[in-house]
Design brief:
mainly alpha, 2 domains, Rossmann fold, binds adenosine-5'-tetraphosphate, globular, Tyrosyl-Transfer RNA Synthetase
Length: about 325
Amino acid sequence: MFNDQKVSFSGVQPSGNLTIGNYLGALRNFSTYSEKYKTFYCVVDEHAITVRQVPADLRRRTYETLALYMACGLDPAKNTLYVQSHVHEHAELGWILNCFTMFGELSRMTQFKDKSVKHADNINAGLFTYPVLMAADILLYQTDVVPVGVDQKQHVEICRDIATRFNQLYPDTFTIPEPVVAKTGMKIMSLAEPTKKMSKSDENSNAVVYILDDRDTIMRKFKRAVTDSDSVVRYAEGKDGINNLMSIYACFTGKTFEEIEREFSGLGYGAFKEAVGQACADALAPVQEQFRTFMADKAMLEEQMKKGAEEASWYARRTLSKVQKRLGFTQFR
Ligand code: AQP
């Protein structure tokens, strides 16, 4: 809460081409907060370097992620849209919070465990302390709600623990944030291995539908999606592939699982996959069109980055200064 106004904060890493998992689990829900909350949506490039990035790709994706925020309905006049590395308070508060975070609690983070396996040749300290920087991102803005996919819920929970610990030592410093996970789209799974989360860094591009994939590619990927030897479209244990496709279809059409089961009764998987592909491509088409318009105007994107960084810095400075005072750091005007 800042000046009696509730705050929503979230971020997306420019660590790859964004997927329909990022879209359904996070991005498309961001704009629902724009009217009633003070909203901060950040392109978290500092998080992205916990895994090696090609500099030119990171730069391009940072612009693309900002353009996608706007293409998903985030109006920069109503939302503060900015890039994490443009607001140095994130890294500064991150360091301070490191001193209030326990080694044991970071060791329990599932994303650290998963990414340590995936990037066994580069288990760097940043990968380990990622949740502390994420806590700083959130707490800097006195955030009330953090709209995220279910995979990030654990990170918001550790953020709450860190903030509560800090507040016990130095009362009334941070607002304690709540994770908000949308009812649908909370975890979209890989099309090739439906027990695994769909991730932008997946090496198998057929397992992932990207927000910017064209219609033919989307149709082809859904056509190839792993299902099972049954042929009935129904949501049930052990039918991970079909369950995932039903969730995706439900997200894009707003239909319930019962309605979907009725719609495809007796039709088999081919017709169902075709319909999922069409619904996905139809929903993404306007986003892609907007994206292309915004990407064609680099000067406008840079102007937005600058404006967003200035707005975010104003709030971030206030919280960081409060924290520094509480800790006993000397300050001068
Ligand atoms: N498959 C998913 N289903 C639902 N939500 C998802 N999110 C990511 N994947 C899914 C949500 O998207 C937001 C931004 O995620 P992120 O970029 O910060 O990092 P991530 O969760 O690590 O996403 P990826 O795609 O898996 O990235 P990489 O491959 O780089 O690690 C978050 O709110 C997340 O929950």
